[in-house]
Amino acid sequence: MHQLETLYRQIIMDHYKNPRNKGLLEDDSYIKEHIKNPSCGDDITIQTRIENGRVKDVRHDGSGCSICCSSASVLSTLVKGKSVEEANTYTKNYLNMIMKQPFDETIDLEDALAYQGVTKFPARVKCASIAWKAFEATLKKASE
Ligand code: ZN
Q1: How far, in Å, from the CA of 38 to the mean position of ligand 1?
Q2: Among 50, 47, 53, residue whose Cα is nearest residue 83
Q3: Neighbour-count burial for 85-107, b at 16+ CB within 10 Å, e otherwise
Q4: I need a labelling partner for 84 at 20 to 30 A (CA). Which of 23, 54, 131, 132 fits?
Q5: Per residue in 40-49, is it b (16+ CB within 10 Å) or e — as a string?
Q6: Distance between CA 110 and CA 5 in Å, rounded?
Q7: Whole-angstrom distance between the N-terminal and C-terminal Cα of the chain?
Q8: Ligand 1 center to residue 93 CA distance, Å?
Q9: Distance from the CA of 105 to the center of ligand 1, in angstroms?
Q10: 65 C-alpha to center of ligand 1: Å?
Q11: How far apart are the CA of 53 and the centre of ligand 1, in A?
Q12: What fold does the segment set 2-143 form as a domain?
């Protein structure tokens, strides 16, 4: 179990230090959502571009703790290229996982599995969830 925790910590630190898909674009075809977490200063904006029912691109920017910023990067790599339906399923499973709710373990959350450990730190659950909640909100806006 210790080895797994070390691996998970490495995944989180890697995405924190080398964030993927970071930086927002001046492009109206992206749907934007901004969420703040006052309890630890996390401030994240997610931009999603949907084309033909697929998540064509996800961008993120903001500042915050390592859990929050890294999870935005992990999210962007995981859902990019997926259909909107799949992206919704992944997001729900991830959020259920970190909130200790039942989730479908047959869906491979890849690097996002690294956040399983936050269930042990209730104060950090919000940090790990805001990027995903912002992303979920962009999908919802797109369907309206
Ligand atoms: Zn945080």
Answers
A1: 9
A2: 53
A3: eebbebbbbbbebbeeeebeeee
A4: 23
A5: eebbbbbbbb
A6: 14
A7: 44
A8: 20
A9: 26
A10: 4
A11: 31
A12: Sufe protein. Chain: A (3.90.1010)
pLDDT of residue 1: 57
Q: What is the pLDDT of residue 23?
A: 98
How far apart are the CA of 88 and the centre of ligand 1, in A?
Answer: 23
How many whole angstroms from 73 Cα to the centroid of ligand 1?
14
pLDDT tens string 14-68: 999 999 999 999 999 999 999 999 888 999 999 999 999 999 999 999 999 999 9
What are the pLDDT digits (tens) for 71-91?
A: 999 999 999 999 999 999 999
Q: Where are the domains of the chain?
A: 2-143
In 38-113, which ranges are E strands? 42-51, 54-63
20 C-alpha to center of ligand 1: Å? 18
Q: How far is the CA of 126 from the centre of ligand 1 (A)?
A: 7
CA of 84 to the centre of ligand 1 (A): 27
CB atoms within 10 A of CB 18: 10
